[in-house]
Amino acid sequence: TVTYDENAAAPADPSDSLFARACRGERTSRPPVWFMRQAGRSLPEYRRLREGVPMLESCTRPDMVTEITLQPVRRYGVDAAIFYSDIVVPLRAVGVDVDVKPGVGPVLGRPIRSRADLDLLRPLEPGEVSFVDEAVRALVGELGGTPLIGFAGAPFTLASYLVEGGPSKHHEVTKALMHSDPELWHELLSRVAGISAMFLDVQVRAGASAVQLFDSWAGALSAADYAKYVHPHSAEVLDSVIDVPRIHFGVGTSEFLPLMASAGADVVGVDWRLPLDEAALRVPGKPLQGNLDPALLGADWPVVEREVHRIVAEGRRAPAHIFNLGHGVLPATDPGVLARVVETVQAAGGAGVAG
Ligand code: CP3
User: Where is the signal peptide (predicted)?
Assistant: First the structure.
């Protein structure tokens, strides 16, 4: 058998990286680690750079995108970079009046609720996000052997913002539309799916090593409604991705994890509600990503350390495990704690036997 030193210098080709091998379901001696929302958020160097530049404008400036994407790689030595952008960037690119309000999230000038409103959702032309193409190409050059993860919002999560007009606790306008006018609903989701698929395609063609589809609000749905009203559209996005591994992530989706997997996931993202050993039973054969509760990063270090060890151990029940949080980094998180989490995971090599 060949033995690897998982902590040796990163190989020059990202497809040989620890992250890529875990995505392919190869058992690695320790999990690769990165964090959702590692770019931006809690980093002081990010806040300094962003001063006076609105969020969505920063996403259109390849120099800023490149720098912000690299910041957490430099600071933490994570095993993958996530492209700095936002799920609403492709919506804005096709002309939707959407902005990201600090402390709030995406807000629409006018929500999309009628058949006439659908005209606002025309297909995305790659040239409309040429700044994404440019930034990804620059990053792939800078990152060397470290893989770059591209991403898009899943159709349901994007549709919720579009229909509600902003963040929503109960998603009631969205659910009312879904059930009252299924035909309009499916047309809306299929348009959004086309936009997300093209956004991913631009990133993959420019050299992204993997993609993640974020369905942050899918957990608001029952399994039956997810299967009927959402799954076909997320499947359309994931099916369109060629040649790179696809991570499918939802929050509160433990009750329908097999549906998340069957939509076309090579890796299933798991939130903190479900232990990874249990998740491994629900989606047998699938590599898993997760699942430290981001809210626990504020606890005393021994608590965090114990959680990291528990998750690494439970992750060994899956064919492969990519260490991450169960949702994104919270804004008040101490970057020093994230650095210690990375160190702890990266020191976990050979700490136990696969079981
Ligand atoms: O993960 C990364 O570090 C890469 C960049 C990234 C951002 N948003 C940057 C961002 C990614 C992958 C996203 C995805 C995203 N955006 C999701 C799915 C992931 C999740 O966390 O559920 C969602 C739901 C959005 C929509 C959105 N954009 C929200 C809810 C917010 C937060 C609003 C706030 O201020 O609390 C944003 C803004 C946003 N997107 C910020 C960043 C770094 C913060 C903006 C700022 O610092 O001014």
Answer: none
